[in-house]
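User: Hey, my collaborator sent me this sequence without any context and asked if I could get a structure. I don't really work with proteins. Can you help?
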Amino acid sequence: MAAAESAEGRWGLSLPWWSLAIGVLTTAFLVGLALALLVKHALTFGFTSVAGLGSVDGPDVDRYELALAVGIGTNVFGALGLSRLARRTRAAAWPRVLTALLIAVVTGALATAGMLAVLGIDPLLLVDGL
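Assistant: No problem. I've predicted the 3D structure and written it out in structure-token form, which is a compact way to encode the shape of the chain:
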């Protein structure tokens, strides 16, 4: 029992703090994904424009900003909400880091799906071939 208490004292962050700390990594992933999609859209627009192969609308930066805001909001508030909910379930007996990782996976997937939906990309098409 003393070993568990010393380990808990060493890593004494509560579950919402662990969720937010791990959520920073998920947020960095969302920013990278939004930037990569914007660059891909800009390159596609430029290539089709120069080559005259078809018509692709130019990238709307405001839409990408809205998608990123939806993704980050879903990620942060979802992590806080799920961590508060997890404290009232059997997950409260789990190690806090493990619970926070599970919460980060769930909120990261929801935030990515929300961000892609705002951009007009169907998130189910990404897993359709699996």
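In plain terms: Residues 15-51 form the longest helix (37 residues). You can pass these tokens on to your collaborator as they are.
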